[in-house]
Amino acid sequence: MMIKNAALAMALALGLAACETSTPTATPVSASAATGIDGVVAALQADVGKDIGGGVTLLSAEADGSTLRAGFQFVATVAQLEAIGRQEFEDGFTQGFVGSLCSNPAVPAFMASGGAVEVTMVDPAGAPILARRVTSC
User: Which domain range does residue 29 map to?
Assistant: First the structure.
């Protein structure tokens, strides 16, 4: 129950903003949009290695051309998440994280010019929990 509460609290804390997901594309991002995303990545990188709340640790943050990548680790195992509603957790976390990023004007501009945000998460043993690519706020 504690893990479910932590997972749901994290999803709610991140805002649960609506977003759309899609398959990867190779659309180049404009130079101005790519430059604008650098500040977002730098802010994320300052939190690498920290628990950002709800038992979620930011493992990595980087921009690679038209993709901003953020990797996380969650305290629950894949089996524990399955028991409490893994899909609900994945959707809530992804939407909340990307929604919080989209509050920075550089992120919608980045996505509008072909950029995407990739969110990955693993459990404590390194087993994949989620991998999502979001292309709009």
Answer: 2-136
